[in-house]
Amino acid sequence: MTARILVVDDIPANVKLLEVRLLAEYFEVLTATNGMDAIETCENGKIDVVLLDVMMPDMDGFEVCRRLKSDPATSHIPVVMVTALDHVSDRVRGLEAGADDFLTKPVNDLQLMTRVRSLVRLKMLTDELRLRASTTRNIGIEELLARREPAAEARPQVLLIDESAESAGQAAGMLAEIADVQVASDPHVGFFRAAEGSFDCIIVSTGFAEFDPLRLCSQLRSIDRTRFVPIILLAEMGEDERVVRGLELGINDYLTRPVDRQELTARLRTQVRRKRYNDHLRSSVTQTIEMAVIDPLTGLHNRRYLDSHLQTLFDRAVARRRPLSLLITDIDRFKSINDTYGHDGGDKILHEFAQRLRKNVRGIDLACRFGGEEFVVVMPDTEAGIAEKVAERVRAEIADKPFRIGEQTITVTASVGVSALKRETDSPHDLLKRADLGLYEAKSGGRNRVVAKAA
Predict the structure, then answer these.
(1) Confidence (pLDDT) at 89
(2) What is the model's pLDDT at position 165?
(3) Residues contacting residue 278 through CB under 8 Å, at least 6 positions apart
(4) Is 373 among the catalytic positions?
(5) Contact yes or no for 368/302 (Cβ under 8 A)
(6) Spatial distance between the Cα atoms of 119 and 416, rounded to a whole number of angstroms
(7) What sign does the CA torsion over 64, 70, 74, 79 have?
(8) Reduced to 3 states, what is the DSSP secondary structure of residue 422?
(9) Is the CB of residue 206 less than 8 Å from the CB of residue 242?
(10) How far apart are CA 210 and CA 17, in angstroms?
(11) Mean pLDDT over each residue of the chain, to the nearest integer
(12) pTM assigned to the model
């Protein structure tokens, strides 16, 4: 996992120390020695995480963080305060300014890398949602995506899973003024309650006598209903290795006992704020693209969306020097299907074809109805060889199982053309053109086949 990390500190030796550690883990590192430069870099560059010193002249880290988090253009960038200050009041002040976490100098290498990787994963999720929202704005429905602050007045719904009645009661009491808290003492009951409910945050204690709390966290991350719900781990003193492992598994934050009320409430607010922001992006994107850029017959994106989003995916692949592949598939002899079974029959074939296509590509792939009986799939981070295997899988899925029209079943086949990004000379048009040439060759060569065009 690579990312761009901004290190901000007015002491060159501190900057160099963090820079060397991060470069050794193959992160791209940018640096700034004062608050204004840090803000300008975040506004102009694609920063994934900011490591921000607190004690700086002119503008301290708290003010830098506050400004970054108050600007919609930079509010989604995770900020980690790196400081020699180790008082609870300092952490609370930073969290209230919008910081996502604290690291205390001297910085432990394992904690640094684990926390950075955890925040990079969260940033990648937010980036994908913002990217799709940006694409939607580009096609002329920006007013429906106007950024609104999610209902800040709504009390967070929190699930606390802790088998100790005493510690659960203490934590629930700390949160009573700002959140509605449900308590589950049994981890299995807690898991099912989380899966069936609608929570803004799940707090998991490590103090189970006969159950691994990290297994519970892993299970919560593995199901759709709780995949994006923030998890805060309540750990005991000396459980550093367990906390690090938890962050690797996908927990969002942690506190070490004894728990301070202000810090707990501040960290909860941070996680709920981030969740509601991402939920808002998902909701906005879903509502708007369904109206404007979804093909109503197949449920896939339409040509209008492809024309805009392909350029975005292409630019991102080039900037990050990542692979990008594309396939075009066409239903063989579709006109004869329409002629034989009518347009209603043809529509049923198109709908079922789209469902099979969607089933055989990843969630991050962009599947579109290109027009008529042609479909396009854009595959980020996919090499040509893998894309060709995906295309073959799609072809086989279509050919091997008959399609149903009313009481009748018919055999349908598809031809597929595949192309991959050539970073030095390519354009989105070139990518589409090569895939289209591959499709033409597949049709000319007898249909029901895959042709990959490398040139």
Answers:
(1) 83
(2) 94
(3) 125, 126, 129, 228
(4) yes
(5) yes
(6) 39
(7) positive
(8) coil
(9) yes
(10) 42
(11) 89
(12) 0.56
Domains of the chain, with CATH numbers?
A: 4-145 (3.40.50.2300), 157-289 (3.40.50.2300), 293-453 (3.30.70.270)
16: CB partners within 8 A, 6+ apart: none
pLDDT of 139 higher than 60: no
Band of the pLDDT at 166, cuts 50, 70, 90?
A: very high
- The H or E element containing residue 54 is none
The identity of residue 161, as a single letter, is I
Q: Convert the pLDDT of each residue in 207-231 to its tens digit.
A: 999 999 999 999 999 998 999 999 9
Give DSSP secondary structure letters for 345-395: HHHHHHHHHHHHHHHTS-TTSEEEEEETTEEEEEEET--HHHHHHHHHHHH
Average pLDDT score over residue span 428-435 = 94
DSSP summary character for residue 155:
P
Cβ atoms 112, 103 nearer than 8 A: yes
- Which structure tokens are listed for 169? 């009661």
Rounded Cα gap, residues 226 and 205, in angstroms:
17
- Give the mean pLDDT of 140-162: 65
Encoded tokens for 355: 């469902």
The catalytic position among 373, 388, 392, 397 is 373
Q: Is the pLDDT of residue 382 over 80?
A: yes
Please give the single-letter amino acid code of residue 139: I
